[in-house]
Design brief:
The complex is a heterodimer. Chain A is α/β, with parallel strands linked by helices. Chain A has ten helices and eight strands. In chain A, a hairpin with a 2-residue loop joins β5 and β6. The radius of gyration of chain A is 27 Å and the shape is elongated. Chain B is elongated, with a radius of gyration of 19 Å. Chain B is mainly α. Chain B folds into two domains: 94 residues, Orthogonal Bundle (Rna Polymerase Sigma Factor, Chain: A), CATH 1.10.1740.10; 98 residues, Arc Repressor Mutant, subunit A (Orthogonal Bundle), CATH 1.10.10. Helices cover 54% and strands 0% of the residues of chain B. Classes of the chains: A alpha/beta, B mainly alpha. Chains A and B meet through α1, α3 and α4 of A and α1, α2, α3, α4 and α5 of B.
C-alpha cells in the first residue's frame, strides 16, 4: 500500500520508524515518501515525538511482582502435580509393591495409596489431567479394564511406531552418557498413548474431563478414576493382553479392526494428531468405547499450548476417505 | 540444595533434574522465574485471576511435558512461550466476552508494585495496553515492558524478528493515539486504531476516554 490521495499510511510509517522495514525495498520507498511528501514528513515527525512519549509512558509502568497467594497456589499445584517418569526410570514412589506386573514391563517400585482429587487450585477448577510414563505405569490399570501401555503394545506389535516412539526403559538406559533428562524424540515422533478398552459410553458435555486415569508412579495418591468408576485399580491384577489374546469383550465390535491391527490404529492416531491444533499435539489416552451410544474411539490429547483436546473417531478412522473419521471434537 | 536461592544449577540442569525425577527441581525453576512469568501473564491478560489460571495451566503443562523439551532454545524462552500461548489461547476464547482489567475493578486487591510516580498515567497506560490487539500487546509486553530483545521475543512468539518489530511498532503507534500523543486522529481514519471507527483520544486527565472499536 502506498500513499492514498495524500493520506499517510500510519502502520507503514510506524514499521518504518521501528526499523521493521530495514533492508527492504519498502524502506527505500517510505524514505522517499518522507523526503518528498510534506504530509508524510509531518506525520513522521509527529509519530517520532509521540513514540518517545509512549516509551516514557511504558517505562512508567511498575513491574508487578507475583502476589503471595498466587505464588502459594502455584507452588501447591506444582507440588501436587504427578512426578514425571522419563529418561530411564520411573519416578520414585512410596508404598507397598504392586500386586501384579505386566509381562515385559518394568514396574514402578511402589504404588500410591488411595485416591485423591486433582491438584489444588481455584475452588471448582477441574482436576489436572496427568500424563504418565506408559512404559511403567501400565502395570497399574483399573481392574476389569484391559489396558495397553507401550510395553503392552510392544508385546502385540514389536514394529509398532508407538513402541518405537515411546521407547522403553531398556532403550533409554542405552542412551550412553547423554543426560537422560531432556529427551529429544525422533523428528515427528510422539509418545505412546495409553490405549484402553473400557466400553464406557461418554457424553459430549463431560468427555473432556472423563479421561480414564491410571495411578501415578510419583508416590502420590492416584487421581480419580474416570470411566472405570469406583473400581479399585489395585483390587486385583490387571488383565494382561498378549499376542495370543482374543479381542477383549470390552472392545466394541466395529472397533475390532483398530484394536487388532496396530498399523491401522497408528494410522488413525496420526491422522487425528494431524487434524488437531495447535501443533504439535501429543495423544495421551485412547479408549475403545462409546460416545453418545455410538461405538467410537475416544482420544484425549494435549495441544502445544497445553490445552486439552478430545477427538472422537468412528470405526473407519485411518481409512480412505474417512481419514480421522471425526464424530466429535472439543477442547477443554 | 540448602534452601531457596541456594541452587546454583542452570535452568537446563534443573529441568533435566526434574525430568529425572528430582522433587522440587521444577519448583526451583518456577521460583527463579515466577515474577517475570507472572508479569507477562498479568500484562497480557490484564486480569489477575485469568493470569493466575493461565500461569497454572502453563506451568503444569511445562511440568508434565518437560521431557519433550528439545533444548533448541533457552529454558526461559520455552517457559515464556508456553505461558504466552496459554495467555493468547485465553484471549482468543474471551474475545467475544471482553472483561474489565483487574486494576479497574473495585474491591479487588491491587498488585504489590513499586510506588508509581503518576497513578493516573499508570492506569491510562494499562487501559490503553488492554485495548491493543493481542498480538501487538504481547509483543510490547515482552519487548518494551519485560525487556526482552526482539530476537528473544521472536523466539518466544515463534515468529520472525521483523514481525515482532512490526507488531511493536504498530502497537506503539496505536498507544500513541489512545494516550493522546497524536493530535487530531479523529480526522484521519488511517491513524492506528481509527480503522473504521470514529476514534477518540483520551486526555491524560482521563477525559475523552477511548470508546469501542479499537481492537
Amino acid at each position: 500500500m502506498t500513499q492514498r490521495g495524500g493520506r499517510v499510511d500510519w502502520d507503514r510509517l510506524a514499521d518504518h520508524l521501528s526499523g521493521a522495514q530495514a533492508g527492504t525495498p519498502e524502506e527505500v520507498e517510505v524514505d522517499r515518501l518522507v523526503a518528498t511528501d510534506p504530509s508524510w514528513a509531518q506525520a513522521a515527525e509527529q509519530l517520532s515525538v509521540a513514540l518517545e512519549a509512549v516509551a516514557a509512558d511504558l517505562r512508567s509502568l511498575p513491574a508487578p511482582a507475583m502476589p503471595v497467594d498466587v505464588a502459594a497456589r502455584l507452588e501447591q499445584a506444582l507440588r501436587a502435580a504427578p512426578a514425571i517418569a522419563s529418561g530411564g526410570a520411573p519416578a520414585p514412589a512410596e508404598g507397598p509393591p504392586l500386586p501384579a506386573q505386566r509381562a515385559g514391563a518394568t514396574p514402578p517400585p511402589g504404588r500410591p495409596a488411595g485416591r485423591a482429587a486433582g491438584p489444588p487450585g481455584r475452588p471448582g477448577a477441574r482436576p489436572r489431567r496427568r500424563r504418565v510414563a506408559r512404559w511403567g505405569a501400565g502395570a497399574a490399570l483399573a481392574a476389569g479394564v484391559v489396558a495397553f501401555g507401550a510395553i503392552g503394545l510392544a508385546a502385540l506389535s514389536p514394529s509398532s511406531p508407538l513402541t518405537i516412539a515411546g521407547g522403553s526403559d531398556a532403550d533409554r538406559s542405552d542412551a550412553g552418557d547423554e543426560p537422560p533428562a531432556v529427551v529429544e524424540l525422533p523428528s515427528g515422533g510422539f509418545e505412546a498413548p495409553l490405549v484402553l478398552a473400557t466400553g464406557t459410553d461418554y457424553q459430549p458435555p463431560t468427555v473432556v474431563t472423563a479421561e480414564p486415569m491410571i495411578p501415578t508412579v510419583g508416590g502420590e495418591p492416584a487421581p480419580e478414576l474416570g470411566p472405570a468408576g469406583d473400581r479399585n485399580p489395585f483390587a486385583q491384577p490387571p488383565d494382561v493382553a498378549t499376542s495370543d489374546d482374543r479381542i477383549p469383550d470390552l472392545v466394541p465390535g466395529t472397533l475390532a479392526r483398530l484394536w487388532a491391527d496396530p498399523a491401522s490404529r497408528d494410522r488413525c492416531l496420526e491422522l487425528v494428531r494431524a487434524a488437531l491444533e495447535p501443533a504439535p499435539v501429543v495423544i495421551d489416552t485412547v479408549d475403545f468405547a462409546r460416545f453418545g451410544g455410538v461405538e467410537a474411539l475416544v482420544i484425549w490429547a494435549t495441544a502445544a499450548d497445553g490445552g486439552r483436546v478430545v477427538w472422537v473417531a468412528g470405526p473407519d478412522c485411518g481409512t480412505d476417505p474417512a481419514g480421522p473419521d471425526r464424530l466429535f471434537q472439543t477442547r477443554g | 540444595m540448602t534452601g531457596p536461592g541456594a541452587d546454583e544449577r542452570t535452568d537446563a540442569e534443573l529441568l533435566r533434574a526434574h525430568v529425572a525425577g528430582e522433587p522440587d527441581a521444577f519448583g526451583e525453576l518456577f521460583r527463579r522465574h515466577r515474577d517475570r512469568l507472572w508479569a507477562v501473564a498479568l500484562r497480557t491478560l490484564t486480569d489477575r485471576e485469568e493470569a493466575a489460571d493461565a500461569l497454572q495451566e502453563a506451568l503444569l503443562s511445562a511440568h508434565r511435558s518437560a521431557a519433550r523439551f528439545r533444548g533448541d532454545s533457552a529454558v526461559t524462552t520455552w517457559l515464556h512461550r508456553i505461558v504466552v500461548n496459554s495467555c493468547l489461547d485465553r484471549l482468543r476464547r474471551r474475545r467475544a466476552h471482553p472483561t474489565v482489567p483487574l486494576e479497574e475493578q473495585p474491591g479487588r486487591g491491587r498488585e504489590p508494585v513499586a510506588p508509581a510516580p503518576d497513578h493516573d498515567t499508570v492506569l491510562l497506560v494499562r487501559e490503553a495496553l488492554a485495548r491493543l490487539a493481542p498480538d501487538q500487546r504481547t509483543a510490547i509486553v515482552l519487548v518494551d515492558l519485560q525487556g526482552y530483545s526482539v530476537a528473544e521475543a521472536a523466539a518466544i512468539l515463534e515468529v520472525a524478528e521483523g514481525t515482532v518489530k512490526s507488531r511493536c511498532a504498530r502497537g506503539r503507534a496505536r498507544l500513541a493515539v489512545l494516550l493522546g500523543h497524536l493530535a487530531g486522529p479523529e480526522r484521519d481514519p488511517d491513524l492506528p486504531g481509527n480503522h473504521g471507527v470514529a476514534g477518540h483520544v483520551p486526555s491524560r486527565s482521563g477525559q475523552g476516554r477511548p470508546e469501542g472499536g479499537i481492537r
